[in-house]
Design a protein that fits this description.
The chain is 2% helix and 30% strand. It is mainly β. 43% of the residues are buried.
């Protein structure tokens, strides 16, 4: 049913759909090793599930407790942490990291070397360009209060984030909005707006011919 390279490691209990490919030195179903100071949950994790036709590329790692849909591609040396839910037809680019407790909608594309922080939500057809950084902790590891306020961004359907942009904790990127390359997003972005700069500011509407419903 699935094609697992002899050098790959698939942990017991992992569910692989029909036509799944696990390539050289990939690891699927890995249990996390957490620091005593980690804010991540510590309950037992369900087996990893990977949908039909998904490819786990060379050196990629998928942790236990994660569900990945059909037709996805996890690029070389990418990593998907525990309790992540990824819908169908998602691309995770080479070297990108998706942290724990994140949800990614159908058709989303995350390009090379992007960092998707824990407790993030990416809806359908989102585009994340290379080297984008998302964050979830305004206190950067200090105070107990940070634990109840820790939250990654919410990136709504069809939004696009340009190369090297930085998105601050808890920010909402509106539906069909466009974040310019290198922007530092410190507050919510309205739907269908283009923002640029540091801090990011609205400069105009997204053109009608770029909206998903116009395609």
């Amino acid at each position: 049913m699935a094609d697992v390279h002899p050098t790959a490691i698939v942990y017991p209990g992992t569910v692989l759909g029909e036509g799944v490919k696990v390539l050289e030195y990939a690891v699927v179903g890995k249990q996390p090793s957490l620091s005593p100071r980690s804010t991540a949950k510590r309950e037992a994790l369900a087996p990893t599930e990977i949908g039909d036709g998904t490819i786990v590329s060379t050196g990629a790692i998928v942790f236990a407790g994660t569900t990945i849909g059909a037709g996805c591609i996890l690029g070389d040396q990418s990593c998907v942490r525990e309790r992540v839910v990824i819908a169908d037809d998602v691309v995770i680019g080479r070297g990108s990291l998706v942290e724990n407790d994140t949800t990614i909608g159908r058709g989303t594309r995350i390009q090379a070397d992007a960092y998707v922080t824990a407790y993030s939500t990416l809806e359908e057809d989102v585009f994340i360009a290379p080297c984008v950084v998302t964050t979830n902790d305004n206190f950067m590891g200090r105070t107990e209060r940070r634990k109840e306020l820790m939250k990654g961004p919410t990136i709504r359907r069809g939004a696009r984030v340009g190369g090297g942009a930085i998105i601050c904790p808890g920010v909402e990127i509106g539906e069909e909005s466009f974040v310019g390359a290198g922007a530092v997003v410190t507050k919510d972005v309205p739907p269908r707006k283009l923002v640029v700069g540091s801090p990011a500011r609205v400069v105009r509407d997204v053109p009608e011919d770029e909206l998903l419903e116009r395609q």
